[in-house]
UniProtKB/TrEMBL annotation:
UniProt xrefs under SUPFAM superfamilies: PhoU-like
Provenance organism: Streptomyces spinosisporus
Protein name according to UniProt: DUF47 family protein
Coiled coil: none
UniProt record similarity statement: Belongs to the UPF0111 family.
Length: 206
């Protein structure tokens, strides 16, 4: 890591960790959604909205700190990108839950549980990785594994699309379910964006 003579604002590390912990909360709510009946799904959606608002607050706090800090722990554009990408994950997960409730989906197609399991694992890895930004240690395995998970998510998504278009569902139901699985895929992509940003930061700081 590069030697610095100037002090750095260290609260960013805690804020990134808090944002990632909130994403773990969101991923657990997605897992709850799988086995929930219709009334329970509405309650889960309310909790997910609260988690998404907490994520927005965490992101705004990072931006505020960024705008008021003279010295930052790493490049400002990377701080902005990392905060925005973490926020995107939460937004996509909340959108998926909201769509399930709004569309009154009775049964999610087989394979969605695999999508959500991948997201839950990526959330855990991301939460474990954020505190390591302080030292830039033990991050390589994190971004390699998240990229592997994103590739796995791509494969699951393609199989889901094939299943949706196999003639079992009517056209309207296909449109509803496709939008949900597409949003879950976007969440997986957002996890990869976070991992790629962390890799960029680590390379710059090495």
């Amino acid at each position: 890591m590069r030697f610095r003579l100037t002090p750095r604002e260290t609260s960013f590390y805690d804020m990134f960790a808090a944002s990632a912990d909130n994403i773990v909360t969101g991923s657990k709510l997605l897992m709850e959604l799988l086995g929930a009946d219709t009334p329970a799904r509405a309650e889960i959606a309310e909790r997910m909205r609260a988690a998404e608002h907490a994520g927005d607050d965490a992101t705004h706090a990072i931006f505020h700190q960024l705008n008021s800090s003279f010295i930052t722990p790493f490049d400002r554009e990377d701080i902005y990108t990392l905060a925005s990408s973490l926020d995107d994950i939460m937004d996509f997960m909340e959108e998926a839950v909201d769509l399930v409730v709004l569309y009154n989906v009775e049964e999610l197609p087989k394979g969605v549980e695999q999508q959500i399991e991948v997201l839950a694992r990526a959330a855990e890895l991301t939460a474990e990785a954020m505190p390591n930004l302080r030292t830039m240690d033990n991050l390589t395995e994190y971004w390699i594994e998240v990229n592997r998970l994103e590739n796995q998510a791509d494969q699951i998504h393609r199989k889901l699309l094939a299943h949706l278009f196999n003639g079992k569902y009517d056209a309207i139901e296909v449109l509803k379910l496709k939008q949900i699985v597409d949003v879950l895929e976007e969440a997986a992509d957002a996890f990869e964006h976070v991992a790629n940003t962390v890799e960029t930061i680590a390379v710059k700081e090495s």
